[in-house]
Amino acid sequence: MSLEWRGAAVAPDDEMPSPESWEPVSVPGRPEQFAGAEAVAYETTFSDPRDESDAHTLLVLNGTYAHTRVWCNGDRLASHDAYFEPLRVRLPESEEYRVVVECRAPEDRFGGLHATDQLPPERCVPGIWWDASLETRPDPCVSELSVQPQVSEADVTDATVEVSATVLTEEPLDDRITLSLRPEGDVRGGGMMDRARVSTDAETATVSYTMDVRDPSLWWPHDRGEQSRYVLSAKLGDAEHSVTTGLRTVSYDDGLRVNGEDMPVRGVTLLDPTAEDVARAVDANANLVRVRAQGTPPEVARACDDHGVLLWQDLPLSGPGSFDTERGTAIATQLDAAYAQHPSFTAVGVHDEPVPSYADGLGTGFLDRLRFRWRAWRASYDDADAASVATAVDSVPTFPVVGPPGIDPDAVTLYPGWRYGDTADLQWLCSQFDVGDVVAGFGAGSLGTPDPGDSPGFDSACHDRHVDGGVEASQAYQSGVVREVAETLRQRNAPLIVVDSLRDVGDAGMGLLAADGTEKTAFRALADSYEPTQVVLSDAAPGEQDIVVLHDRPEKADLTVEWDCNGDREQAEHTVGPFARVTVDTLTLSAGDDVTLAATDGQTVVKNEYRISE
């Protein structure tokens, strides 16, 4: 049942909000007229939605940012403080309902990116962001259903599904829930069915059960296999509830492993995630998205499942400052449970960018490297709290600290050619600070429009140090940085790299796409650099440079490699092994040379073009 809502900015206090006036708003949504408000109240009225077969009315809110309270007919029924977890409120019997929902800006450190200046204020309005609906159910019924797949890393044919079902009942109950697990679509294998007992005198009860999965069909990232899924249904009486899940293993030990196999990761960061962004990530040859310092909307997580894209999910914690470890642990536990049903769920980051940027404006060369080392040494960070919070996540690998070199991060953010130095400094950064295996952010910013003004997350002073010109020059510079850093990291065999970021949130930014999804020059440059099998130059600079084949597949490949330098064309046949880096030949290059590299296995052709600069 759809609802009509009104809203108002309010001053938060302990009482139910009673603004002088309300105005119509769209829910779910983020009413821009309330941008900057500390709290926003939302009101809806409706008649009893039940028919003769229904006994329960549930208000289901998804994405209530950030601290939420709910009143019905003047009585406070619920409070909530983790917006990535659905809020389900059982409403009392009544002929008419007036529901008031108050959403407050974060009262602690866990507002994530929405509590920073990285996103525009209109994207941070306290509200019901993702969904708001009424559900009616018979009695008794299953009101909530969650699943957590378990697959043995030692034997992927050994699989189970942990089921948790919440039962609503008006009378004492002694019955059995019928649980069925069936493959979705054309997935091979048969279905399974079990029955779990529920016996209670209370109005609600939780039933936990473990189902064995026979002959499991695994979920794979899109560049490795099929996205097999299963539908888990729980039936009690005439009421049925279902969720979709998938089976896979994921671990990290000097590299990510999915279903027991090595998985080189090529990722993109999402700052304002949409389901369309997941499809765009696939177009960029990415196999992972990192949703930075915020919850992932349900439709985005489902899109990751559908498209075979791994999901790195951060806690909503960003920027310098201490935080409540107990609160962080509770959020990490809730987040782990909320996303565990998604087979794409792959990793969790705890504290994003925990120290101020310390090297902005430094150039390259000996003295600037000394300054960089000195500032990095002073930018210490005690990771004990982040590491403690990370222990609450037990279903996927964790990266407790995501930040710059010098603070011993679990995942590093590297911006040579943008915040400091140039792209040639990347090798020094990685070796000097022993980083570069897990890179959670790299890249450069660019203009999306000729006159962007003040765009969130965009450092115009940094941009102007590197670029003298308009949109074309700006995007060309970004493209060069993204390409060089991506290719260098891949040549170093970095097992997990993530570009910052896929799409702008304003008229300029770090995105490879403008805010409306229009491609910048860097998008296709990254797509070429992210090809699982690609041929690249060791450096697009004058001098002797190697032609290198990058092969991130688990099987060997017989390739024909061709190179053209200023019209002089040559080729060679090469067999490359699994996950190999092979030097094909060496070219002596001069400034102004045009170089085209290509490789084919007889079915797919990849190509790279270079203009050698000074």
TrEMBL record:
One of its GO terms (molecular function) is hydrolase activity, hydrolyzing O-glycosyl compounds. Residues 18-28 have a biased composition (Low complexity). Residues 144-243 form the Glycoside hydrolase family 2 immunoglobulin-like beta-sandwich domain. Keywords: Glycosidase, Hydrolase. Pfam families: Glyco_hydro_2 (PF00703). SUPFAM superfamilies: (Trans)glycosidases (SSF51445), beta-Galactosidase/glucuronidase domain (SSF49303), Galactose-binding domain-like (SSF49785). Residues 1-30 are annotated as: Disordered. It comes from the Archaea. GO terms for biological process: carbohydrate metabolic process. InterPro entries: Beta-gal/glucu_dom_sf (IPR036156), Galactose-bd-like_sf (IPR008979), GH (IPR017853), GH2_Domain-Containing (IPR051913), Ig-like_fold (IPR013783), Ig-like_GH2 (IPR006102). PANTHER family: BETA-GALACTOSIDASE, BETA-MANNOSIDASE. This is Hydrolase.
